[in-house]
């Protein structure tokens, strides 16, 4: 099953020595059967709103005509009209979302976002129900022949319209997520000794030396706790709603429903539990060493790494452009379209929500990238990452009604491109920063594996919790699990607070493990490219030709990648990743300079030790000579004294004997 119908109601966007490979025929291009792309600049894609009555009128016409087989062509025409109208609605909703995420302070955009979400649920439900009923009508055979996709037809026929309660729950879900969105964009403050502190002020005070490390830690912990007191409460409410949503769909556990229906996964929560254990065993232990290596390299180019890319988004697109084609020329078609029509919003703005994602404006056949840039190297990496999604969407031949969502596969498109672009890091970032970026990308992928597993394990445990879970219990569960993944906490509490900063936990629950599974596949592709660049790129490009209706394990098998749920695979990938990262560090100028310093220090220490040894030997010998001279002098004096006594006359009388004895004692 493609599972696209439930995914439609969930409104998906996509966020951000090698085993032998027996891939299919070499990649030969994308073909010409993708969607039709309108050459309309984003600046001309204006939000105009949408009147749901337009779709309802078409549905009424379909309902009136479907009972007569002679109306088969009219039913097919109505189907195409519904498809077109849903694409228009989706585009209008998406355009408003970009406005809202660009400036979350505008209440009008927030209100429209909520209204469009609720309307989308209603329209999708009505449209799917109408198509299902048409397929069951006398006109059904003609519509089936027109669709020419038995699996798609089965999905339509199996659709069950939403109950009133399910629609209410969908609205509640959206309201809670929007409540979180507002909170996540809020700067929380605390008051200490009549002084107000927020995160920015604490960071600045620490940087300026006004407060010490302990005070800084205490302040940021209190701020995090303040934020958590609001957002963890929202999450506890959201969990309650999501559990009921799953129950209305016939599932006893929300995680199982999300895995099967929302994310189209062909692996289970039990498979993920095995993966958690392997990741803790092989990936978690190497994180601290790689992070220290990154810090060492980043220290030499800190300004370049973290503030060297404060530029207009057009300049950012120009910076990356030449190297996209170097990976493979076939990627240029989508990139040229992105650049020509400015289908992106990546400027640095304080009003933006802190997210990055790729969506599709189906009305125009145009993918679109949004990112909240900050001027760091990460802006470049996010563009590369999101273009992996963009390229796949560009060559997708679906519309909103038949679009599918498989995040595990989607994230290979993005993360795979990230690692292949590291070949050109010297040119993109400059030699000074290139090695630091290489390590940053490797570390981020390793973190994607560990964090993806951590947050999935956390949410699985939350959704399996008996009864209504509290915010405090969520905090306790996360802290206990986080410590198993190598987190350390410098306080006596049994709760953790910062987990609420991961927006996916609220906006797309149980999405995060897709970063882990896809990162493992991407790292495998990268290891292959290190051995044989051409083969690694060909496998990646071949992989991008599969749509998101292909499930994860199925895709790995089709392109010839090994099963990432096997312990041996995880061990091998972790070893290869660590070896590459260490080689990057050991071949860097920073490492060579540090080794030279160490050599000099060792040489100085050896010289000092040698001098000390020489001095010790000198003073020991001198001491021995002095002792020998003193001993000789004492012996000579004793001999002289003995000689004097021996030369004195002795009277052989009792008195003389007594005197001689006396003289001996005096001597």
Can you tell me about this structure?
There is one protein chain. This protein has about 675 residues and is mostly helical. Among the domains are: about 1-15 and about 250-585, Neurolysin, domain 3 (Orthogonal Bundle), CATH 1.10.1370.30; about 590-665. The protein is built from 27 helices and five strands. The chain has helices at about 5-10, 55-65, 70-100, 105-135, 140-145, 150-155, 165-185, 200-205, 215-250, 255-260, 270-280, 285-300, 300-305, 315-325, 330-340, 375-395, 405-420, 425-430, 430-465, 470-485, 505, 515-530, 535-545, 550-560, 565-585, 590-645, 655-665; strands spanning about 190, 195, 345, 355-360, 365-370. The strands form two sheets. Strands 3-5-4 form a three-stranded mixed beta sheet. Strands 1-2 form a two-stranded antiparallel ribbon. Strand 4 (about 355-360) and strand 5 (about 365-370) form a beta hairpin. Helix 4 runs antiparallel to helix 7 (about 165-185), helix 9 crosses helix 20 (about 470-485) and helix 14 (about 315-325) crosses helix 16. The longest helix is centred in the C-terminal third of the chain and has 59 residues, at about 590-645. Residues about 1-10, about 15-25 and about 655-665 have low confidence and may be disordered.
């Amino acid at each position: 099953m493609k599972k696209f119908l439930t995914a439609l109601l969930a409104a998906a966007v996509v966020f951000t020595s090698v085993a032998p490979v027996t891939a299919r025929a070499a990649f030969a291009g994308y073909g010409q059967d993708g969607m039709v792309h309108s050459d309309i600049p984003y600046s001309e894609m204006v939000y105009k709103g949408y009147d749901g009555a337009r779709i309802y009128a078409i549905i009424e016409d379909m309902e009136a005509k479907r009972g007569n087989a002679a109306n088969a062509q009219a039913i097919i025409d109505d189907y195409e009209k519904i498809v077109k109208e849903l694409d228009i609605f989706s585009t209008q909703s998406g355009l408003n979302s970009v406005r809202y995420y660009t400036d979350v302070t505008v209440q009008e955009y927030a209100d429209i976002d909520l209204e469009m979400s609720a309307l989308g649920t209603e329209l999708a439900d009505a449209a799917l129900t109408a198509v299902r009923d048409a397929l069951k009508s006398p006109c059904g055979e003609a519509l089936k022949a027109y669709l020419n996709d038995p699996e798609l037809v089965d999905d339509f026929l199996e659709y069950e319209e939403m109950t009133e309660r399910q629609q209410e729950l969908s609205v509640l879900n959206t309201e809670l997520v929007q409540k979180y969105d507002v909170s996540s964009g809020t700067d929380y403050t605390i008051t200490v000794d009549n002084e107000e502190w927020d995160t920015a002020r604490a960071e600045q005070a620490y940087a300026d030396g006004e407060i010490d490390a302990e005070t800084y830690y205490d302040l940021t912990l209190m701020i995090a706790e303040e934020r958590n007191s609001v957002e963890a409460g929202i999450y506890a409410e959201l969990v309650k709603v999501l559990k009921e949503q799953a129950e209305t769909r016939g599932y006893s556990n929300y995680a199982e429903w999300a895995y099967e229906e929302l994310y189209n996964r062909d692996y289970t929560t039990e498979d993920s539990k095995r993966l958690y254990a392997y990741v803790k065993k092989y990936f978690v232990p190497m994180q601290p060493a790689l992070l220290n290596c990154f810090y060492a390299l980043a220290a030499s180019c800190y300004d370049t790494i973290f503030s060297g890319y404060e530029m207009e988004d057009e300049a950012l697109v120009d910076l990356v452009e030449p190297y996209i084609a170097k990976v493979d020329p076939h990627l240029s078609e989508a990139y040229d379209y992105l650049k020509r029509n400015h289908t992106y919003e990546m400027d640095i703005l304080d009003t933006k929500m802190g997210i990055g994602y790729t969506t599709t404006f189906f009305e125009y056949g145009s993918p679109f990238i949004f990112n909240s840039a900050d001027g760091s190297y990460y802006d470049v990496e996010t563009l590369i990452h999101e273009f992996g999604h963009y390229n796949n969407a560009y060559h997708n031949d679906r519309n909103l009604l038949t679009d599918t969502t498989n995040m595990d596969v989607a994230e290979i498109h993005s993360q795979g491109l990230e690692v292949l672009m590291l070949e050109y890091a010297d040119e993109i970032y400059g030699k000074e920063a290139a090695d630091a970026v290489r390590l940053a990308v490797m570390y981020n992928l390793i973190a994607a594996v560990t964090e993806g597993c951590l947050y999935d394990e956390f949410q699985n445990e939350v959704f399996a919790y008996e009864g209504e879970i509290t915010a405090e219990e969520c905090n306790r569960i996360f802290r206990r699990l986080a410590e198993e993944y190598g987190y350390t906490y410098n306080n006596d509490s049994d709760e953790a607070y910062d987990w609420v900063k991961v927006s996916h936990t609220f906006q797309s629950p149980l999405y995060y493990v897709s970063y882990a599974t896809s990162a493992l596949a991407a790292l495998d592709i990268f290891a292959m490219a290190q051995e044989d660049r051409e083969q690694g790129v060909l496998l990646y490009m071949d992989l991008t030709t599969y749509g998101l209706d292909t499930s994860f394990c199925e895709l790995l098998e089709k392109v010839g990648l090994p099963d990432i749920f096997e312990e041996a695979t995880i061990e091998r990938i972790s070893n290869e990743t660590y070896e590459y990262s260490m080689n990057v560090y050991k071949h860097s100028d920073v490492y060579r300079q540090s080794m030279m310093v160490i050599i000099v220090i060792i040489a100085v220490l050896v010289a000092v030790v040698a001098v000390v040894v020489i001095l010790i030997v000198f003073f020991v010998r001198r001491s021995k000579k002095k002792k020998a001279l003193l001993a000789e002098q004492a012996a000579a004096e004793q001999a002289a004294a003995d000689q004097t006594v021996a030369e004195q006359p002795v009277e052989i009388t009792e008195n003389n004997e007594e005197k001689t004895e006396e003289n001996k004692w005096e001597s």
